[in-house]
Amino acid sequence: MLETTSVGSFPKPDYLIKARNQFAKGELSPEKLKELELQAIKEVIQMQEEVGIDILVHGEMERGDMTTYFAENWEGFAISSLVRSYGNRYYRKPVVVNPVKRPKPVTVEYYKYAQSLTKKPVKGMMTGPYTMCDWSFNEYYPNREALTLAFAEVIHQEAVDLEKAGARYIQIDEPAISTRPDELDLAIRAMKIVTNGLKAKTISHICYGDFSTIYPRILDLPVDILDLEFANSNFSNLDIFKKPKFTKMISIGVVDVHTHTIEDKETVKQNLKKALQVFDPEKVLVDPDCGLKTRTPEEAKAKLKVIVEAVKEVKQEFGLK
């Protein structure tokens, strides 16, 4: 009960940021960049082991943006100039100009390397079909529905390959779902394609939206675990999930990834206790609100450490194993 994990991304170390800039300028070989990516993944796995996290992630050290990375490795895309995503953060948005195709697995090699470094389970990590559609420009398919379902097919192929490689947990991130509740049925249909036939535990991360507009319909998303943000909204959205009763497993964000402040242990404990008044402990995982890539490496580690410490004490207080 109350296993700990994280959402996926971690801050890149300075040497990898420098290497990625050199690579973009043609000053560093692909082989050397990959060597440094693997080094950074190893450090992320070691850090999570040291902190005591139960279900690990590889940190997405090979990825810049969660949508553009896949577009760069699939067929059918051009890449736009810089587009603002939020605040002062920008990314190069995928542009779909031809049929979306996956010539080979994209995530499997990095997953297998990360899993080889630990006996604990490592999640396979992908961006979901609805978010890939919503965060891309479409210049080929007749509509958003056709594009989303095309993404679903290639993401399903990747998920099957991850499962064959040994992944016990496969996460398909869908942060865009909560922004267009009128298209939730499309997102559900697409996810059904992605997860069809999988035996691995499937997870979908959804963050920073008005959950009242998608609950309880979101329970129909065909994944085993929903990973939701709570700390950033000070758990004010918790009441939404009281009626009807939440029936899936849930991964609960108990620390805010958009602040440099490191939450104290008592605050995290109280956050988790609030959640356990609504969700059954045997169905709860515990993690940060979202990916930690916007924090410093020191902050990311500290936030995970306080989660582990808080969970340990809450389990003792509640008599949970």
How far do the termini sit from each other? 6 Å
How many DSSP helices?
Answer: 9
Query: Could you say which overall geometry the principal axes of the C-alpha atoms support?
Result: globular
* Main sheet overview: 7 strands, parallel
Architecture per CATH nomenclature, i.e. the level-2 architecture: Alpha-Beta Barrel
Arrangement of strands in the largest sheet: 1-10-9-8-7-6-4
- Order of helices and strands, N to C? EHHHEEHEHEHEHEEEHEH
Strand content: 15-25%
Q: How many whole angstroms does the radius of gyration measure?
A: 19 Å
Give structural notes.
The protein is α/β, with parallel strands linked by helices and 321 residues long. The chain has one domain (3-65, 101-318): TIM Barrel (Alpha-Beta Barrel), CATH 3.20.20.210. The chain has 9 helices and 10 strands. It has helices spanning 14-24, 30-51, 68-73, 108-116, 129-134, 144-164, 184-195, 265-276, 297-318; strands at 3-4, 75-86, 89-101, 123-127, 137-138, 169-173, 201-206, 225-228, 249-253, 284-287. It has a 7-stranded parallel sheet. It has a 3-stranded mixed sheet with strand order 2-3-5. α1 (14-24) packs antiparallel against α2 (30-51), α6 packs parallel to α7 and α8 (265-276) crosses α9 (297-318).
Summarize the structure.
38% of the residues lie in helices and 18% in strands.
Keywords summarizing the entry:
alpha/beta; 18% strand; globular
Task: Provide the fold topology.
Blueprint lengths: L2 E2 L9 H11 L5 H22 L16 H6 L1 E12 L2 E13 L6 H9 L6 E5 L1 H6 L2 E2 L5 H21 L4 E5 L10 H12 L5 E6 L18 E4 L20 E5 L11 H12 L7 E4 L9 H22 L3
Parallel strand pairs: 1-10, 3-5, 4-6, 6-7, 7-8, 8-9, 9-10
Antiparallel strand pairs: 2-3
